[in-house]
Design a protein that fits this description.
Layout (H helix, E strand, L loop, with lengths): L2 E4 L7 H12 L4 E4 L4 E6 L3 H11 L8 E3 L3 H7 E2 L2 H10 L4 E7 L14 E5 L4 H10 L3 E5 L12 H8 L5 E4 L9 E4 L6 E4 L11
Parallel strand pairs: 1-9, 2-9, 4-7, 6-10
Antiparallel strand pairs: 2-3, 3-8, 4-8, 5-6, 6-7, 10-11
Helix pairs in contact: 1-5
Length: 207
């Protein structure tokens, strides 16, 4: 059974954040809250942890993984950001948006889309997620926690514990999360193309 931390959603306890990051650095898989839904996360260099997440969500090889980043400057290390894309990122991060960009060599190939060599990037606007990223000092490989037999994500950490408590190393209870995943916007060619409408407003990308 996984560990279970109740962390305050606005003023996260530093001691618990430190313990959570220790679990990540030891190759663990965690459940944590974001400004959209609960998410599964691990360190991007931990192949076994990534494979566990693939298994939990039954993801195909074509799934575009997401790197949750601390801020705009960190994004530039892992994605190629042209001027047009930079303006979009600056305007809509942090927030409930995931941007698909060309990956740099810093991103493990297994996390990139196999054909397009892209990676999803987001900066979550949630105190717990931001505290985890700050303590970790690098992006978190992340994907929305939507189980294959569920039409909607689970919103309560206690329900998540009941369903997948034996499959992860830590569940962070940060209170109820929403049911809408992030809005996904493709910036591969610099022109925003909405791939999935989620919590983020898509009218701002209208041509």
């Amino acid at each position: 059974m996984s560990q279970y931390f109740e962390i305050h959603p606005e003023t996260p306890q530093k001691r618990l954040i430190h313990q959570a990051v220790k679990i990540l650095r030891e190759g663990g898989v965690i459940v944590y809250p974001t400004d959209s839904t609960y998410a599964l996360g691990c360190m991007m260099g931990e192949k076994a942890a990534v494979d566990r997440i693939r298994q939990i969500r039954q993801l195909s090889d074509n799934h575009n993984f997401t790197l949750a980043c601390r801020d705009l400057s960190e994004i530039g290390t892992y994605a190629r950001v042209e001027n047009t894309a930079y303006r979009q990122l600056k305007a809509f991060t942090p927030g409930p948006y995931t941007f698909v960009l060309r990956a740099t060599g810093e991103v493990p190939r297994r996390l990139q889309h196999p054909k397009r060599k892209t990676i999803g990037i987001r900066v979550p606007d949630h105190a717990i997620a931001r505290a985890l990223l700050e303590e970790l000092g690098e992006p978190l490989m992340s994907t929305s926690l939507q189980l294959p037999d569920q039409e909607l994500p689970l919103t309560e950490a206690s329900d998540i514990r009941e369903r997948i408590g034996k499959l992860v190393d830590l569940i962070i209870d940060g209170g109820a999360c929403g049911m809408e995943p992030s809005t996904v916007v493709d910036l591969y060619d610099g022109v925003p193309v909405v791939l999935r409408q989620g919590k983020g407003d898509v009218s701002v990308f209208a041509q």
